[in-house]
TrEMBL record:
Family listed: Belongs to the LamB/PxpA family.
EC annotation from Swiss-Prot or TrEMBL: 3.5.2.9
Keyword Secreted in annotation: no
Cited CDD domains: LamB_YcsF_like
Biological source species: Lysinibacillus contaminans
Reaction(s) catalysed (UniProt annotation): 5-oxo-L-proline + ATP + 2 H2O = L-glutamate + ADP + phosphate + H(+)
Species lineage: Bacteria, Bacillati, Bacillota, Bacilli, Bacillales
Name of a matching Pfam family: LamB_YcsF
Keyword annotations: ATP-binding, Hydrolase, Nucleotide-binding
Protein name: 5-oxoprolinase subunit A
Role summary: Catalyzes the cleavage of 5-oxoproline to form L-glutamate coupled to the hydrolysis of ATP to ADP and inorganic phosphate.
């Protein structure tokens, strides 16, 4: 049987600004990437999101991003590898505090937005992030774009590494995601997005914008929690995967073979 993890970016509210329906979407995902305060989130939101994830039996990961609240961490910054390392250590440590008081173990680390995309292409940034994760705990799973520099860096260090694919994003022929600056970056048809996911999991392929088949590895699927119909989409994709005899389980369970 095929297996896949469903992950979702959560905890991205800030102060009085509320984003997404966290409590509902946690019923359908298996891993949660919780914002750590740099691109979104705040201490109260982090605590509440951790509590909700635990209550729903969802595995928890840190979602470190660039320090850019106004740009939601989606604008690139000219940072050094050392700065990337320090940012990851700092943000993972912040989330770990809330997990410790609940006696909960962190499952993974997944960079956010521009930091994620930079690490997908830059070996130096990728290696710095992977090293930060390894130095915090070699038992953590590193999430990165399938076939990217980040997954390569994680595997080189001996980290458990999950190759990630996206349900609602289009792809380029080199396996990268289409830039959000492009009008065709997002897939808005839920049926099309779900069919793309099923094919990526079962066949390891996706059709790029250039109409070229791209091979990839789908260990975990990202679904965004801030979309207009995010909860409905999460429910539908979970149902469709199950119908296709694809087991939906947290990545740590998959990697441990349980």
């Amino acid at each position: 049987m095929f297996r896949v993890d469903l992950n979702c970016d959560l905890g991205e509210s800030f102060g009085r600004y509320q984003l997404g329906e966290q409590e509902e979407i946690l019923k359908y995902v298996t891993s949660a990437n919780i914002a750590c305060g740099f691109h979104a989130g705040d201490p109260t939101v982090m605590r509440e999101t951790v509590k909700l994830a635990i209550a729903n039996g969802v595995k928890i990961g840190a979602h470190p991003g660039l320090p850019d609240l106004n740009g939601f961490g989606r604008r690139e910054m000219n940072i050094t590898p050392q700065e990337a390392y320090d940012m990851v250590v700092y943000q993972v440590g912040a989330l770990q505090g809330f997990l410790t008081i609940h006696n909960e173990t962190m499952q993974h680390v997944k960079p956010h937005g521009a930091l994620y995309n930079m690490a997908a292409k830059s070996p130096a940034i990728a290696e710095a992030i992977a090293q930060a994760v390894y130095d915090i705990s070699p038992s953590l799973v590193l999430f990165g774009l399938s076939g990217s520099e980040l997954t390569k860096a994680g595997e080189k260090l001996g980290l458990q590494t999950a190759h990630e694919v996206f349900a609602d994003r289009t792809y380029q022929q080199d396996g990268s995601l289409t830039s959000r600056k492009q009008p065709d970056a997002l897939i808005t048809d839920n049926g099309q997005a779900i069919e793309q996911v099923v094919r990526m999991v079962k066949e390891g392929k996706v059709l790029s914008q250039q109409q070229i088949e791209v091979s990839l590895q789908a260990d975990t699927v990202c679904i965004h929690g801030d979309g207009e119909h995010a909860v409905e989409f999460a429910k539908n994709i979970h149902t469709k995967l199950t119908e296709q005899h694809i087991s939906v389980r947290a990545i740590k369970e998959d990697l441990n073979g349980s």
